[in-house]
Amino acid sequence: MIRFGLAALLGICVGGPAVAATAFDQSDLSLPAKEANGTAVQLSGHLCLPQGVVKPRVVLFNHGKLDDPRGTVLKNCDTEQAQWFLARGFAVTYIHRRGNGKSGGSLAENTACANPNWAIRDAQEGARDIEASVAYLASLPQLRHDGMVVQGHSAGGWATIGFGAYKDPRVMALLNFAGGRSCNNPGQIANASADFGAMSATPMLWIYTANDLWFPPADVKALYKGYSKGGGKADVHALPAYGSTQMDGHMFWQGDGATAIWGPIVETYLTERGVMGADGKAAP
To answer: What is the average pLDDT across 152-181?
Structure first.
């Protein structure tokens, strides 16, 4: 179901209140993954552990398409988005998928628009790295190995939609912020979305804004129509414009003060999925 304008009463603006600092321990990760041809590579990551929490549930953050793939560094645990989850007792993991930052391998999510399978292929390649990351995180003794949350923004959101086809039992919640891929062909991505909807078992949460540069409301409707036609289930929140530019809308996930807007929506969804308790903390 698509919900329109549900955040209007929350006051959509740029530069909202900062999230209170939650103490954490940050460490580097090197995660094993594979290219499509089976070649082994290592992914670079950060693990953020909330202090005082024993074996926390984990949230895996997936980035969008980067302007400078090799020159981009991993974000740290003090970002507003990470702090929102850390304050609620979740561990947070950032990864760079293949070809980004210090991660090995090729930039797989870069299929030419002339390729008739560009939309499916990009989602599948991103999902490959997500699945490898989930498997690695499930092997770490300091983390809970079930009830994981996978979040993705933009191209990472599209990869998260593709990851739903894995039906990984260790993952209970899938968050898509402004997810998709753009080749000026919304019909093609809607068809790909239908394929993934037919394979996905976990109900998703999708969040988009009215002033998204890459995925305006008409494209979001087409994407959801395809996903639901295929049998996929998603609670879609089509929010009013955020900020003053179209890029503000697309970058809503990491906008200043945006946790005050998307936080209650995410909390409701995670509670429904059994990942968060009635006390607003990660479920034990």
So the answer is: 97
